[in-house]
């Protein structure tokens, strides 16, 4: 389950659906150390799975009076399922935060 809200982004116009809660799914998938299609090791790739699902769901739900408060996403990869997931895992550590 992913609970969403709209979120503005620095240096970008518009809002985007963002995960503010997550359960039973990987919120942040760390792919560092894996190989890309050319055999090079991934150095910084962390995929915000919960945010991606939130953004896709927001497109389907709408931002105004469309009246679609819930989206059911099926067929997610098994690798994304996890008993303990937290949207807080998506927050950048203060030591890496460029805006504070």
Structure overview:
The protein is α+β, with helices and mostly antiparallel strands and 100 residues long. 13% of the residues lie in helices and 19% in strands. The protein is built from one helix and four strands; from the N terminus they run E-E-E-E-H. The chain has a two-stranded antiparallel ribbon. A two-stranded antiparallel sheet has the order 3-4. A hairpin with a 6-residue loop joins strand 1 and strand 2. The longest helix is centred in the middle third of the chain and has 13 residues, at 49-61. The protein is globular, with a radius of gyration of 15 Å.
Q: How large is the count of helical segments?
A: 1
Structural class: alpha+beta
Helix content range: 10-25%
Proportion of residues in extended strands = 15-25%
Distance N to C terminus: 30 Å
Unreliable spans are none
Strand order of the largest sheet: 1-2
Please state the average pLDDT score: 90
Largest sheet: 2 strands, antiparallel
SS elements, strand count: 4
- Approximate shape: globular
Secondary-structure element order, N to C: EEEEH
Give me the Rg, rounded: 15 Å
